[in-house]
Each structure stands twice: as C-alpha cells, then as structure tokens.
Amino acid sequence: MIVGNMGILVLIFLLFLLCLKVPTYHAQQQDQTSSFSPHRTVIDVKGGPESVVWVVQLSDLHFSVHHPDRAFDFKTLLPPALSMINPSLVLITGDLTDGKSKDLLVMRQNEEEWVEYKNIMEDVVKRSGLDKSIFYDLRGNHDNFGVPVVGGSFDFYSKYSINGQLGRSGHVNSITLQAGEQKYLFVGLDSTMSVGLRGPTNLFGHPTDQLLTEIDLELAQWDSQSAKPVNKITFGHFPLSFSASSQSGRTLKDIFLKHSLSAYICGHLHSRFGKNLKRHHLSNHLLLSSQKFFQFNVHQIPSEGIKNCSFGAPPVEEFWEWEMGDWRKSRAMRILAIDRGHVSFAGIDFKSGSKKTIIIPTFPLDSRFMSTSSSHNEYECEHMLPSSYETVRALVFSVSPVVSVVAKIYDSRYGNLDNVMEATMTKHVDRSSRGDLYSVPWNYKAFEDPSADRFWLQIEATDIMGRTTLTELRPFSVNGLHAKVLWTWKEFFVMGCQWAALYYPILWLTMYFLLLLLLIPRAFLIFSRKQHAYKNFLAAKGLINGIAWVLQELCRVPIAWFGFLGYLFYLVLFPWFVGQVFTDGGDRGYMTYMGWVVKSSNNKRNDYIGSPDIMVVVLPHLIFVVLPAIFFAGALAAERAVHRDNFLSISGKKADDYGRLNKRSLRYDSRGNRRSKFHFDGRWMRSILLVLCLAICWKHFKNCRALMKAYEMNPLLHFPVYSLGIPVLLGYVIHKTKGA
After folding, report:
1. Where are the beta strands (DSSP E) in 133-247?
2. Taking CA 619 as the corner, what is the angle to CA 617 and CA 625, rounded to the nearest 5 degrees?
3. Which residue in 211, 317, 189, 182 sits closest to 259, CA to CA?
4. Which of 470, 590, 645, 660 could form a disulfide bond with 575, CB atoms 3.0-4.6 angstroms apart?
C-alpha cells in the first residue's frame, strides 16, 4: 500500500514540475507585409478661423444584414451633420461591418454587409458635400474576422472601404493639416491580426515591431522641419488596454509617450461599459511598476519632481486616450478641435434625432478629461502663449443663423453654482470661413484656483428661429490642474486593466491554485496523521477547515480525483479543440492555452496566434467551470460522509454494515414501503449541490454550443475531452455519492 502511494506521488510530482514551466516568450506574431509603406498626405486647410481646426470621429458602425436600422440612420443623420460641421477630416476608427450571424455566435465576413457599407459611404460623401479623400476608415477586429490573408479573396475591407478604394494599403496613414504656419499631424494605425481569426478569439490589437517603427517614423516626420510645435494625434481601433505588446516587448504606449501626443482616439469598447472610457497616460520609468498591469484612476498620478522652467527642458512624456463609444447602439459621433494647441472634444448623441445646433467650447479646457501635466507646468513657468488664454472661445455650428452666443461661468465654492460671469461672445469674421468661432475677453488670472473643479463653464447659443442650445456644464482650471474622476468597476475593468500583460499571470495563478487544491489534501491524506474529517470540522469550525475537509473527501473518491488531475494536465499539454478559423473553410487549426496553430492560405504554418485573445475562452472555463466543479464534487463527497456518520450513529451499526444497509434504505423506508424514485432521504444539502452541479454543466454546455457554432465543430470529434470531461466527472461523483 505504501509503495503504491509513493509511486502515485512520484508521478504527480513529475507532472507538477512539468506544469511549472511557465512560458517566458511572447506569442509569435506575423509581420505585416513590408511592401505596404505608410501613406502620407498634406492637406492645406483653406479659410478661417486660422487658429483652429476640427475633425469628426465615428467608430463601431457595425453595419449588419440583421440590423438594417444602423445603416439607415447613418445614411439619414450623418450627411446633414457633416455638411453643417464641415470638418477637415472624417475618421472612422474600425468595425465598419458586423460580421456576425443573427444569434451572434458565428463571426466571419459577409460580403453583403460590405457592399451596403460602400454604397452608404458613397451616398454620405455625396450628400455631405465633402471631398472623399478626407475620409479615413480603419479596419477593426470585426472587419478582420476569418480573413486568412490581407489582400485575399475574403479581405472585403481592401475592396470596399474608402481606404482600400483610394489605394491606402499601408497599416499606417499620416495626414498633416496645415493652417497658415501651424501644422497638425494625425497618424492612423491598423493593428489588427495579420492572420484574422474568427471570433470570439479575435479581440485584441497586435502591433508588430515593424508597425511600431513605422508609427515612430511618422510621428517624427516634422520634428526637425517645423518652427512651431506640432500637435500630434493618433487614431486606431483598439484601446491600449486591449493591445498586445510586440515580439520584442515594445508597446504602442511606449511610442506615444516618446512623442508626447496630444491624444490617442479609438473605439472598440462601445458605450455600454460607461461614459468615462478615457485615460491619462504619464511616463513611469520604474522597472517594477504596477502600471504595467493596472491603472486605478482616470488620471495617472504624477511623481513629485523639481519644476524645470528652462526653455530647453524636454516635454513631459504624457498623452490622453479617449475611447468614443459606438454608432451601433449609441448613435455617437465626436467632434475634436485643436485651438492654438489646446485639444478639446464634444460627443454628439443622435439617438434623439438630428441636431440643429452643435457647440464645442475650445477654451478653457475641461479639467476632467483634457488638462495635461505639461499645461500646468507651462502655466507655472509662464511659458504659455498669453493670447491663447485671454479669451473664452467656442465653435458653433448651426443649420440656421445664430443671433446670440453667451458664455456663463459658475462658482461652486460654497456648494451652489453661483453665476460669476455672463458675457456675450462675438464671432470671428473672415473672408472665407470654414466655421464660426466665437470668443469673449476675460481676466483669466481671476480664475486661478488650487481646486480643479471650482469653476464651471457653460455656453448658450440662440438661433434666428428662437431655438436655444446649451452645452453641459464642465469644470475648468486655467492653471492646468486635473479634476478628479473615478471609474466605475466596469470602466476600470475595460480601461484600467492591461489584459495582454495580465493573461499569463492570471492563467498560471489559476492553474497552480487548482493543482494545489488537488495535491495538498492528497498529501495530507497519505503522509499526515492529522486528517480532516467531519468530526474534526465540528470540533474546530472555520472556512479553512471546511475547505480542507471537503477537498480531502474528494481524495477518497480516487477515480474522480485522478480524473480532475488528468483533466488539468490535458488542458496544459494538449490542444483544447480543433476548429474552423477562416471564412472560407479549408484546413482546421487547433487551439491551446498559448494560442491557435493554423495554416494560412499560402500553406504557411502560424504558431500560437490569437494570444492573449484566447483568454476569453481559457480563463472563464478554468474559473467558472473547472474551479466550481472541483469544489462541488468535493462537497458531494463530504455530504456523503456526513450522511454516512449520521446513518451509523442512528442505526448503531458498524461502518462495515453501512454499504449493505444503505443500499436497502435507498429502496425502502423504516416501515418496509418502497421509496419514490426521486426521494432524497432528507438529504437537502445533496439536492442543492445537485442543482449547482447542473448549473455548472448548463454553463459549460452553453459555452460548448457557442464554440461549436463559432468554429464549426463536432463535440465528439473536435473537442471530446474539453466538452465531456467536466460533465462526466461530475456525473461519476454524483453516482458514487448517491448512497455509498
């Protein structure tokens, strides 16, 4: 007996050591085709006001054959709005089409949606009166579902998008707006997978080292040529929290901090996670910083340093990240303006219909989402341009002539909003105007305050029809301080967590935890005199003692215990399932916890792509299926032990008599009457545990059904161990503990 147990322990120990080999590599990424060079454009902005430019951003259109209202509203609402706003650029940051079936489970390209997108965009361009060349539409992960190779027959983005039609084949596009002597640089980037998997394991941006180098070069193109500072803004689809690192470990954040961007604007997350999907990034050179994994607040707290007011001092390495929401359900649009170096934005909600008047305050800036550490430093050092501070300014767009624009400032010092300034703004008059900029002089020094949210600004505009439009109240700080904003837990979950960096730590912590749950109780059972039984638990109650007892009872069902251990090692050592990952069928790929191994259309093998995207399958299975299954299996075994002790104490029989007597008690009561088929003998805890086990199996069944449809799999052929392992183990434990 001792020799047999020692042999088992040696086998377990060897397997455990094998599992401890944590991968220290980055998932292999396919370099985007080097022949796709960046596309550079310089646009000379004609007309006034010369001191300000503005662009429009849209994102996550998700045109779908199953939801025609998305395209219809876009075609109806957008052309008149764009005509009224007259932007210098229109940026559409990904997910142009939906690529999902009606039940949302199959995710691949649908050419009908792309034809609709092309026709709608042609109509929007025509009716808005804007030049088609100022539209830039990026590829999102939905536009990449099941695309085996860029430029292939299923790459409908390259065929039907505006970028594709205009020959913008590169993964980086840079546009310089030149207004007078001032330049404004916009750099768009496509970081989608070069080998596009079907969803749900196509969720992250995957910038390669080549892409990061191209972005770096584009952002630096005016550094040595422009006499005045250049405002730099990048736009892409994925937030940085859903962007992986390159093979060398570099990230988009590293490049953006290097160039001290004004902002990175993106989409992907949609409005359902919250309205404050914004994040301020500040350089942190600490080697062991938690910022690699988490940022707990919208604003990154700057480290206290010595103020450097010399003109040769390097700029503060920082930038804002602004996710904008979606057109899919929210019908959202954003207008972003740059006024004498100050970047501001306003979100437009079309759910209530078209807008007659739109107002964007351009100065002072909203201290919650637009102030920067560099602005505060410039103000403290008196390096800012006084002319940019001497007036309150706002852009006003309206379908009807505007007769009055009023700036109102409120003081919240005493808990109420007291009006401390109300002044009529005047319109800047130019020979040829792109839009209307209103301003009013003020004594900005009177509004200096150590509180970033003491003063609040509101702009009111009235048109010739008598219609009044008010902006929302927004706090401001002329000395560049941040107003405190707290994320909700959902906002923190999607914006504050660096999921690409967190995947492997969470995976291995979970895997080690599951292994220890199985191995430690087994070791106590074999080697320790102190064993946890029901009587011990009654004598020393506590959570730890209860868990130890439950898990040790699972060890007393050896087939189930070895089954769970074998299942864990299977998940580590073997493919989870074999599925169809491309739109067109062809060779199947297989998925492990490290990613997908697939062959692309040129017969080239791609190893471990789609990491960390696969975390949406791997982590929920381990945490919400395997972990509770182990606990509930142990709980069933523990409930059997309790029932056994109670039975023996009541009957006065020995333990050896338990099996024989209990089999009869399952069929007959104390009077000799045959029991009902569904009688539980008063074992109400077992009934609850059976319901919980059924819930786990139902959850697992739903996950398997979704994967079956997503990757066209048969559970018996393509993932038998993954799909049947947990239900079979739970079924075995239920059978063994029903009365024995």
Report:
1. 135-137, 172-179, 182-189, 231-235
2. 90
3. 317
4. 590
Question: For residue 546, what are the contacts with CB-CB under 8 A and spacing of at least 6?
Answer: 537
Compute the distance between CA of residue 717 and CA of residue 697 in angstroms, rounded to an integer.
20
β-strands 263-266, 318-323 pairing: parallel
**What is the Cα–Cα distance from 110 to 142, expressed in whole angstroms?**
11
The position carrying tokens 């056994």 is: 644
Measured between its terminal Cα atoms, the distance across the chain in Å is: 23
Q: How far is CA 426 from CA 67, 403, 404, 478, in A?
A: 45, 10, 8, 21
- Cβ count near 567 (within 10 Å): 19
Indicate if the alpha-carbon torsion angle 499, 503, 505, 506 is positive or negative.
positive
**Cα–Cα distance measured from residue 63 to residue 66, given in angstroms and rounded to the nearest whole number:** 9
CA proximity to 178, closest of 234, 233, 230:
230
Residue with tokens 């410039």: 378
Question: How does residue 674 score in pLDDT terms, banded at 50, 70 and 90?
Answer: low
412 touches 456 (CB < 8 A): yes
How large is the average pLDDT for residues 521-546?
A: 68
What are φ and ψ of residue 655, in 5° steps? -60, -35
CB distance 242 to 23 below 8 Å: no
Per-residue burial over 255-271, b = 16 or more CB atoms within 10 Å of its CB, e = otherwise: bbbebbbbbbbbbbbbb
All domains in the chain, ordered by first residue: 38-304+313-355+485-495 (3.60.21.10), 502-651+684-737 (no CATH)
- What Rg, from alpha-carbon coordinates, does the chain have? 31
The label of the residue with tokens 């707990």 reads 296
Per DSSP, helices labelled H in 556-657 are: 558-573, 615-621, 627-651
* pTM, two decimal places: 0.89
Nearest-angstrom CA–CA distance, 239 and 278? 9
% of the chain exceeding 90 in pLDDT: 66
Percent over 70 (pLDDT), the chain: 84
What is residue 248's DSSP assignment?
Answer: T
CA distance 688 to 685: 5
pLDDT at 525 exceeding the cut of 50: yes
Instruction: State residue 28's pLDDT score.
Output: 42
Task: For residue 202, give the nearest of 579, 715, 493, 595 by alpha carbon.
Answer: 595
Residue 648 near residue 658, CB atoms below 8 Å: yes
The pLDDT tens digits of the residues spanning 44-88 come to 998 888 889 999 999 999 999 999 999 999 999 999 999 999 999
**Is 607 or 563 the better-scoring residue by pLDDT?**
563
Tokens encoding 556: 């007393």
- For 508-519, the pLDDT digits (tens) are 999 999 999 999
Which pair of tokens denotes residue 239? 């937030």
Q: pLDDT of 436-493, one tens digit each?
A: 999 999 999 999 999 999 999 999 999 999 999 999 999 999 988 889 899 999 999 9
Task: Provide the token pair at 525.
Answer: 């059972």
3-state secondary structure of 478: coil
pLDDT band at 305 (very low <50, low <70, confident <90, very high): low
Secondary structure E strands in 85-179: 90-92, 135-137, 172-179
The mean pLDDT value for 706-712 works out to 95
User: What single-letter DSSP state applies at residue 568?
Assistant: H
pLDDT at 607: 87
State the CB neighbour count (10 A cutoff) for residue 645: 16
720-736 vs 558-573: helix crossing angle, rounded to 10: 170
Q: C-alpha angle 573/578/580, rounded to 5°?
A: 150
Quick one: CA torsion of 7, 9, 11, 14, rounded to 10 degrees? -140
- Give the residue among 7, 3, 186, 8 at the shortest CA–CA distance from 562: 8
Q: Please state whether the peptide bond connecting residue 38 to the residue before it is cis, i.e. omega within 30 degrees of 0.
A: no
Distance, in Å, from the CA atom of 668 to the CA atom of 267, rounded to the nearest integer, reads 65
∠ Cα 377 316 181 (to 5°):
85
